[in-house]
Amino acid sequence: MPELPEVETVVRGLRRVLPGHAIVGVRLGKTDFIDDPVALAESLPGRRIGGVQRVGKFIDVELDPSEGPAERAVPLHLIVHLGMTGRLVVCPASDPIPLHTHVFFELDDGRELRYADSRRFGRMLVLPDAMIRAFHGKLGEEPLEIPAAEFRKRLAGRHARIKALLLDQHVLRGIGNIYADESLWKARIHPARSAAGLSAQRLDGLWRAIRDVLQGAIRSRGSSISDFVDAAGKPGEYQLRHRVYGREGEACHRCGSRIRRVIVAGRSSHFCPRCQAPPRSGRKGSGKRPGVRALKMKGQHHARRRATRS
Asked: What pLDDT, on the 0 to 100 scale, is given for residue 68?
């Protein structure tokens, strides 16, 4: 948390209230999550905000050139990652200051853009316009923009577990644990299945499921499970529509089976054991040898057959 829908919700809120306003001052508290605090504090005042966009799980605030030395004639980008508990909220400067608020961007109309983060797992940095394309290029494809054919190409034939690939930000950018689980449930694919074992038809179904889930979450302004709020400080509502995530032991909305949880790719993964059949091991032609328990049960079976015949 937050993932693509939550970050998109924050970006849409900031886009409504920030462009055209200038940053007149920067105040910093704790700075261990900021790449270069001095550059942040010195290069932003006097710059006007040109736009706000989302890049995967990152927020990109575009800052126009300003008057002064030659270095100020270069457009800048304020890049923010909310980590697990980050909040980026616009409010009047007179509003009470919540705990763990570490960055204050003073605006020209008396408001402030505040960044709060209790765990400080987020990140904040400033990049010149010439470096922003390289920064974007380090990330994978945008899930809501990638064509179905390109999606299949990126996943087909890969022997990694499908859940791990969905979480890999170099493959697709913006998907995290919640929406990987929700998309796999919608596509009826077990999170531990190998991508190489999925047909083109199953991959197309997953592509559609990812788009449907993410678009639905954006319409509901994201999932507020613990700390997430939008740019106005309001929680989202998509957590009310989760089908598997966080529902271990509850009934599947599709078949009634109990939702289970396993660890896949180092993350808790929720799935329906009936709708999302687990991958089989030791199948004929798979090249895998049966385990000790399977061999023991096979021996007991043959012993019973011999006793019955005698």
From this structure: 60
Tell me: pLDDT of 34 over 90. Answer: yes
Q: Give the C-alpha separation, 35 to 29, whole Å.
A: 14
Same-domain check for residues 154 and 180 = yes
Residue 70 has a pLDDT of 58
Do 220 and 111 reside in the same domain of the chain?
A: no
Domain-embedded: residue 116:
yes
Same domain, 159 and 100: no
Q: Give the model confidence (pLDDT) of 159-187 as tens digits.
A: 999 999 999 999 999 999 999 999 999 99
pLDDT, tens digit (0-9, with 9 covering 90-100), for 228-277 = 888 888 888 899 999 999 999 999 999 999 999 999 989 999 999 999 99
CATH assignment at residue 181: 1.10.8.50
- Tell me the CATH number at 86: 3.20.190.10
| Residues tagged active-site | 2-3, 57, 267
Give the separation between CA 1 and CA 45, rounded to whole angstroms. 30
Say how many domains are in the chain: 2
Q: What are the residues whose beta carbons fall under 8 Å from the beta carbon of 151, sequence distance 6 or more?
A: 141, 203, 206, 207
Q: Are 183 and 213 in contact (CB under 8 A)?
A: yes
Residue 86's domain spans which residues? 4-137
Query: Residue 288 pLDDT more than 50?
Result: no
